[in-house]
Amino acid sequence: MKITLNNRPESLDINQLTLQELIEKKNFTFKFLVTKINGELIKKENRAVASIHEGDDVAVIHLITGG
To answer: How far is CA 29 from the centre of its chain?
Structure first.
């Protein structure tokens, strides 16, 4: 499956994937993540059911806090 992940083309060796599975597969380990599929904000509690499809534009953005 081919998608865009954080503005970069990405080819995955799987045809069905949830947003949560992608986060785990790509090892995004930051505590605070903002996630979007095709510009639509996906809440943390919905990541396990949000499906990613061929051609989707996915954004996984980590937030850093501090001073």
So the answer is: 12
The domain of 39 spans: 2-62
28-38 pLDDT tens trace: 988 899 999 99
Determine contact, residues 58/3, Cβ cutoff 8 Å. yes
Whose CA is closest to 52, among 38, 34, 31, 33? Answer: 38
Assigned domain for 67 exists: no
Sign of CA dihedral 23, 5, 66, 32: negative
**What's the pTM?**
0.90
The total number of structural domains that make up the chain: 1
CATH number at residue 47: 3.10.20.30
- In this structure, what token pair is assigned to residue 53? 């499809």
